[in-house]
Each structure stands twice: as C-alpha cells, then as structure tokens.
Design goal:
about 180 residues, mainly alpha, Rna Polymerase Sigma Factor, Chain: A, Arc Repressor Mutant, subunit A, 8 helices, about 75% helix
C-alpha cells in the first residue's frame, strides 16, 4: 500500500514526463538559448514540485506549469536584461537548428528547405515583437494553446490576449510580406 506522499510523487513524475518537453520548447522558443531554456525548465519543475501540494487543480497542470515558466522567464529578463541579450547574441540557437524542433509535415527535401526558410523568417519577425506579444504568439502558435489557456497562463484577460495576438500576428505577417 503506497503512502499519500508516494502517490503524490508518482503523480508529479507523470506530470513532468507529460509536460517537460512542452515547457522546454516554449522556453527555448522564448529565449532562443538552449542552456538557459534547460535551466529555466528545471527551475520551473523544481518550483512546481515545491508547491505541488498547493496545486488545487483549478486549471490544467500544463496551464499551471506554463504560468510558472512565464514568470521565471519574466524574472530572468527583468533581473538580467543586459546580460541576457549579450549572452543570447553570442550563444543563441541557430534558427535552422530551432526549426528542426518544430514539427513539419513536409516530406521532400525541397519542401523541408522551404519550410526551414519560412521558419527563419518567422523567427526574425518574432524577435521584433514586444515581450508580451512574443509570449502570447509563442503560446498560441508554438504550444498551440487556445486563447483561454493563454489567458490563464499569462494572467491576462482573453480580450487582452486577443489584442496582443492580433498585433503580433499583424507584425509577423507584415514582416513576411503578407496581409496585415
């Protein structure tokens, strides 16, 4: 017979196994630095583990974890803004390498090359977004979260999420030469 602590530990281990890649992928897309993304991912799960008994289940586990990840990312940027940008310029993930992390339904090498080129253009456009627009954009289009989930994860109202998403999408489309 397992104790309550053992059951909670098993449940948390399942949550980590289920959501670790998604949290890491979001943080990598947000920071464009693999070492930093890995560190923040570990910090996210460490913080979640410390507060696991306080998780009330009012939102899904991924929404709760994403909120922690977003807050860790904001704290990092707030505390080390100058160092962060200097570091990412010298150690940033190559956009071609980052494009390989994203799922692609393309089959031929030519189609894969075209998809990678498009991803590079999108990354350049996303780099120009404000922090909040970039976060909302990445949660929607990289993590495929819906508006309500993004709102819960960021603490923003759905209307505010929609506004930031619309502005971000308009800027990205504008950079890609598409309609605004």
């Amino acid at each position: 017979m397992a104790t309550a602590e053992e059951l909670a530990a098993e449940e948390f281990a399942r949550v980590v196994a289920t959501h670790r890649q998604q949290i890491f992928r979001f943080l990598l897309a947000s920071t464009r630095d693999m070492d930093l993304a890995e560190t923040l991912t570990q910090d996210c799960f460490l913080k979640a583990h410390r507060h696991w008994s306080g998780f009330r289940g009012e939102s899904s586990a991924i929404t709760w974890l994403m909120r922690i990840a977003i807050n860790l990312q904001k704290d990092h940027w707030r505390n080390r803004r100058v160092q962060f940008w200097r570091h990412t310029r010298s150690n940033a993930v190559d956009s071609e390498e980052a494009s390989e992390w994203l799922p692609s339904g393309e089959s031929s090498p030519e189609q894969q090359l075209l998809a990678r080129e498009q991803v590079k253009r999108v990354w350049r456009a996303v780099d120009g977004l404000s922090e909040r627009q970039r976060t909302v954009f990445l949660l929607r289009y990289v993590e495929e979260m819906d508006i309500a989930e993004i709102g819960r994860a960021t603490g923003l109202s759905e209307g505010t999420v929609k506004a930031h998403l619309s502005r971000a999408l308009g800027r990205v489309r504008g950079e890609l030469g598409g309609r605004k």
